[in-house]
DNA sequence: CGTGAACGATGACAAAAGTCTATGTTTTAC
DNA sequence: GTAAAACATAGACTTTTGTCATCGTTCACG
């Protein structure tokens, strides 16, 4: 399973990383069942997670304690609460598994060492951050102006696998739509 | 006016940067009137702008050609379309001045040189990127679940100066609310 | 200055989204 | 395997948001 991570890195940084195995060894392998809490709002986020298998939900609670999902991240991607991870401040978001998962977690000291010993890995962090940012910008631009129906169409176009893979409730909270409304609108398509 | 930028940098990186003046000299000083287009969607974003004075609007058009504003950035902050700037791809967003502005612009080659000659400046990019990302995450978490009225309250709490400084039309487009609705809701507060 | 365009507020109405209840189905956990 | 819980859908109704037209006011620019 570590090969998923190995491939992810060599695809981006090339095969000529002589200390790659050493770096990979610093990752902690985590097997998690469905619905496990990976990070709780208020705790510092100690790890960056690479998802080798499964799917994570990044979410907060609104004033009525409903979940609103900022992001859904699937295998072969990185997931963390980066701002807490890099500052050490308490996390403002929660993370949980929505499927059985296999994760590889790297903590802050190892992450620092990795970036210092091989400057190429510095790129990894920049890539994670830029990808996360791009995702956010995309989401804001799409969502601030779209109606509920158009958000669903947006999801069908850009992340169609989510529609078949996840519960309606979760998708609705990702789209910022009430689940009953989501159910009605789906029927109209 | 360059001192605004000088202070911004020394506040973050300390006073002991011997090549600071050389770096500052690579910035281009731009004076812009109100309502000038700084970046057009489709063009590559060639600069990162430091706003010494004034205010910029980052926006896109929705399917009905209404503007939706992803961000409003005021003086003593950085503004760019970072993803285009760092990749060279066409920008997906527009930027314009909403007030008379004084900007300091740095292009990609100078930015690279700056980061290579003094690794401390590498931190600047990371800080810009992290701040931009933090801002986006904050905005998504706040906005996906909030009603129009609660978005206005959110703005009153976190960026109250915008309410007095900018037009209702602009604020409404930043909040993702129709301007007539914004006008009505304001009266209710 | 003066004037034409943009702006802000408001009322009437339409459309979209939210809420609540009920019901049947699927999943989970023991 | 079965009972309990969670899930998906649907109808009736309420609330919120959007749209359009109108009318003073303000502001930018010649």
Please provide a written account of the structure.
The structure is a homodimer of 189-residue chains. Chain A is α+β, with helices and mostly antiparallel strands. Chain A has a domain at 2-118: Sandwich (Jelly Rolls). In chain A, 50% of the residues lie in helices and 23% in strands. Chain A contains nine helices and eight strands. A four-stranded antiparallel β-sheet of chain A has the order 1-8-3-6. In chain A, strand 4 and strand 5 form a beta hairpin. The longest helix of chain A is centred in the C-terminal third of the chain and has 25 residues, at 119-143. The termini of chain A are far apart. The mean pLDDT of chain A is 92. The structure holds a DNA duplex (30 and 30 nucleotides).
């Amino acid at each position: 399973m570590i090969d998923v991570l190995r491939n992810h890195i060599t695809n981006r940084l090339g095969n000529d990383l002589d200390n790659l195995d050493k770096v990979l060894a610093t990752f902690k392998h985590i097997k998690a069942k469905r619905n496990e809490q990976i990070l709780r709002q208020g705790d510092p986020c100690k790890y960056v997670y690479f998802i080798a298998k499964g799917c994570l939900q990044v979410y907060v609670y609104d004033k009525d304690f409903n979940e609103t999902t900022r992001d859904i991240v699937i295998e072969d991607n990185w997931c963390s609460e980066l701002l807490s991870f890099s500052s050490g401040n308490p996390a403002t978001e929660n993370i949980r598994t929505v499927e059985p998962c296999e994760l590889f977690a790297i903590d802050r000291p190892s992450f620092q060492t990795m970036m210092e010993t091989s400057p190429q890995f510095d790129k990894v962090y920049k890539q994670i951050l830029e990808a996360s940012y791009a995702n956010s910008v995309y989401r804001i631009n799409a969502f601030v102006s779209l109606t509920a129906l158009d958000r669903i169409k947006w999801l069908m176009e850009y992340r169609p696998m989510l529609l078949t893979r996840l519960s309606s409730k979760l998708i609705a909270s990702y789209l910022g739509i009430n689940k009953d409304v989501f159910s009605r609108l789906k029927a109209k398509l």
